[in-house]
Each structure stands twice: as C-alpha cells, then as structure tokens.
Write a structure and sequence with these properties.
By secondary structure, the protein is α/β, with parallel strands linked by helices. The chain is 30% helix and 12% strand.
Length: 235
C-alpha cells in the first residue's frame, strides 16, 4: 500500500495501516503500537478537542500518551490529523528524526509529554488535572492512555488512590488491556479503579462505537477510566 505524503491530503482510519507501514527499522514495539490504534483514532477523530492550530490554546484538551514505548500508531494518527507531515514517518527512529522510539514533547507537534518509561503518565495526568483546576480552567479534559503492564508500577496506584477522593472529574484514563501485566487484578482492572471511587467501564478495544460511548459517558464528580480489551500481546 502506497501512501502519498502530500501535506494537503486528508487521511482517514483506513489509511492508518499504510501510514504505519512507512515506519520501519528495529525496536518498533509493533504489538504495543497496534494495540492502541483504534483507541487513538476514536479519541482524535471524535472526542478530543485538539487541533494543530490549538496546540497552545489553554482551553484545549490534553492527551498524554503514557504507553510511549510503542508510538507508531500515535505518530500515524498525528500525521492523519495534520499535527505533523506524513513525510516524517519514514525517518522514524533514525538519528536525525524528530520521531523517536519514545515521543519527545519538544520535537513532536501535539505531544504533551515525553514518555515511554512505565508508570509515569497517570501521575502526570493527575498533576495536570489538578493544575488546570487550580487555574480555574474547568473545561479542558485530561486524557491519558496507559498499558495494563503499567499497573505493575506502584506510582500508578498512588495516582489512582488520590484521584478518586480528589474528585478529578476532568481526568480520563484509557487502559489498553492486552494481557501483558505480570500481576493479576482481583476482580479485573476496572474494579481496582472503582475501589478508589472512579467511574469505570470495560469495552472491546476494537469496537469504535463502544469506545465512543464509553469515552463520552457521564461521570459527574469522579474521574473516569475505560478499560479497552484487545487481543493478547503474544497471541
């Protein structure tokens, strides 16, 4: 499949595999990337209030990719939505490319954080939601995408335990569940969040309508988590 890199072109969901195919080389973390593809598309296409021209707008939504060790799908979606040119994609991971194996917020247009180390994104998202609330900015939503294996890290559980009682209702977490966590969660992933006072829903991570319904569900006074189940990493 050949993808043109005309900057004026409009890309759709069906173009994403072709955009991802432009990124070659070693250490691609392909399963980590493809597991996030549908979640990222639904968020950027139908939910997030972000756009290339609003990158510095204080009223924009914030999306934080904590699962940053597999960023190919993220880069493909950013290219499809006009944040970066598609002709950057073939350079992925090369010495002089802005598109590293972990996203760099200084180099990647639209990236809110540098990420890839497990367990950092959710605590940063909690801080972002607190900071926005302290500034009186109650409209912007904060979204963070994490992997189920990140729940092996204690920093995430501290963030979960804090955010519920703090009533951070503008905080939204998406957990990609591809069965890669080392430790089982009694009652499932959603139950861990619910125990801390979060609103929680578990859906098929490939079903766009189910994802959209879960992303837009009302959760007054509480942070919200969507557990998106996809095929097991090693299947």
């Amino acid at each position: 499949m050949t993808i043109a890199t005309d900057h004026s072109r409009t890309y759709g969901y069906d173009d994403l595999p072709g955009l991802m195919s432009l990124m070659t080389g070693d250490e691609k973390h392909g399963p980590a990337a493809t597991s996030t593809l549908d979640v990222l598309w639904v968020l950027y296409d139908r939910v997030l209030r972000v756009a290339p021209e609003r990158r510095a707008d204080p009223g924009r939504d914030r999306f934080l990719l904590s699962k940053g060790h597999g960023p190919m799908a993220y880069y493909a979606v950013l290219a499809a939505k006009g944040f970066l040119p598609a002709d950057w994609l073939p350079g992925f991971g090369s010495y002089d490319s802005p598109l590293g194996h972990h996203p760099d917020r200084v180099l990647v247009p639209g990236a809110e954080i540098g990420s890839g180390s497990l367990g950092h994104g959710l605590p940063i998202a909690v801080g972002s939601a607190l900071g926005l609330r302290a500034q009186g900015l109650h409209d912007p939503a904060v979204w963070v995408l994490i992997g189920d294996a990140e729940l092996d890290e204690g920093s995430n559980h501290e963030a979960i335990a804090f955010a519920g009682p703090a009533g951070l209702e503008r905080l939204h977490t998406v957990v990609i569940d591809n069965s890669s966590a080392s430790h089982a969660r009694p009652g499932g992933i959603a139950a861990r969040f619910e125990a801390a006072g979060w609103s929680a829903v578990t859906v098929d991570g490939r079903d766009h309508e189910a994802l959209h319904a879960a992303f837009t569900a009302a959760h007054p006074g509480r942070p919200h988590v969507v557990v998106a189940r996809v095929e097991p990493k090693n299947a």
